[in-house]
Design brief:
The chain contains six helices and seven strands, in the order βαααβββαβαββα. The protein has a domain of 120 residues: Gcn5-related N-acetyltransferase (GNAT) (Aminopeptidase), CATH 3.40.630.30. The chain is α+β, with helices and mostly antiparallel strands and 174 residues long. Helix 4 crosses helix 5. The chain has a seven-stranded mixed β-sheet. It comes from Rossellomorea marisflavi. Keywords: Antibiotic resistance, Transferase. One of its GO terms (biological process) is siderophore biosynthetic process.
Length: 174
Amino acid sequence: MHKTISFRKAGLDDIGLVHTWMNEDHVHPFWHLNLPFPEFRTHFEKALSDGHQSLYLGMIDGIPMSYWEAYWVEGDVLQGTYPNHPYDQGVHLLIGDKRFLGKGLALPLLKEMVRFLFEESKTVKVMAEPDIRNEKMIHVFKTCGFIPLKPVQLPAKTGLLMSCDRREFERRWS
């Protein structure tokens, strides 16, 4: 059965949905954003207005089911944790809608988002730093073409710094 993957920019109208996802048992241990709604609203509004990142909803057959943050490493907490380049991008993701868990969709979704990020011709690497305890997502990143570099201590977690090189990604998925 063929599924259509698409992304759209997230907006303030999506706050209720994203807040619900942040409170799911499979999400909050890794995102730490299971905040009361007023606090989450402040966080989400700040994220939406942050020019260094873009927020997206991932959809399967037009149904919003995942949340994505694409960001520039330059100016992020990752800057300086490895020899970064000005156009390196990073990505965060979660599958929020439980109906879509365990269906093998994380890899196809990640592939499409990485392909989208590489549409910026100056981007050579896409970085990720999944929670070091999140073995399922680390496996998905590796399968997509991300190489584990090292553990990194970040404000809310210990992440596994991972890098996906454009040439390797295109070789693997062209």
